[in-house]
Design a protein that fits this description.
This protein is of the alpha/beta class. It has helices spanning about 25-35, 60-70, 95-100, 110-125, 140-155, 185-190, 215-225, 255-260, and strands spanning about 15, 40-45, 75-80, 105-110, 125-130, 160, 170-175, 175-185, 205-210, 235-245, 270, 285, 290, 295-300. The mean pLDDT is about 95.
Amino acid sequence: MATRPPQLIRGDTVGIVTIGSPLAANRIDEGIMVLENMGLRVIVGDYVYSAEGFLAATPQQMASDLMKMFANKEVKWILPTRGGVGVASILPYLDFTFISRNPKIVSGYSDISVLQNVLFEYADLITFQSLLLLDFKMSTPAYNFNQFFSATSSLFAPWEIQNPPGFPLVSLVPGNVVGPIVGGNLTSFIGTLGTPYEISTAGKIIFLEETHEPINTVYRYLNHLFLAGKFDDCLGIIMGDCTNCDISYGKTYADLINEFLVPLGIPLMSNLSTAHGFYKATIPIGAVVNMNTLNSTLTVMEPAVSPS
């Protein structure tokens, strides 16, 4: 069983970091204000407001900020401002042994997916594919907040990951499998193949999502994962949203799933609301889940957090 971080309760401290691309100061300030209005305390890393082109700071500086949050005994939740690019660059400078001994809630998506899966692989830590600081604004649907705070505060299990009403999960290849769930942003994983930090999928259920890529590029990335053997020994596949992904050569995202993934014969589910979509289900990376495409359910079999 993977390490569960301590549960989040009202009044806890959130540590804000920028470990990829920079975010505008006004967006950071807005997110902090919303967090504080929710009854949470906030501390800010040294390089949260920094900008060095398409990176917030050097990889060493961003890694140092993240490690300081893991070292801070007050911090219960580490919240990146955004993803963007560059998160993989900090990985060589992280102390995974120290992280495993000081577990925290880590949330996010997009390029943060790389960090989350590496934390599970190297520090055995459950993290949460969910909110970034940029999602803490008045226009964010209550579903997103409810999903996150329920997953990170409740010790109840099992519990079902459910899409918002009107957006059913779609089962495409029958199966009923149980195993750790990994995954996140497709583009981000492609960038780590051939490195020590590539995603491990053997014996696991993998979920994938994408944004702002034409469907022929999404095909290229899925085929790259296929050629890299990432579907060979996985237990199941869950496809999330492909947000603002343009039709290409007359093919849609649904066409790609049906024509490329269904023939693999691996238990397959699609239409999970996650990450870059308007609605964001909270996925506990590293937790054991039951993916049942016979009744279109996705159930987390264990608490994702431990008692505070």
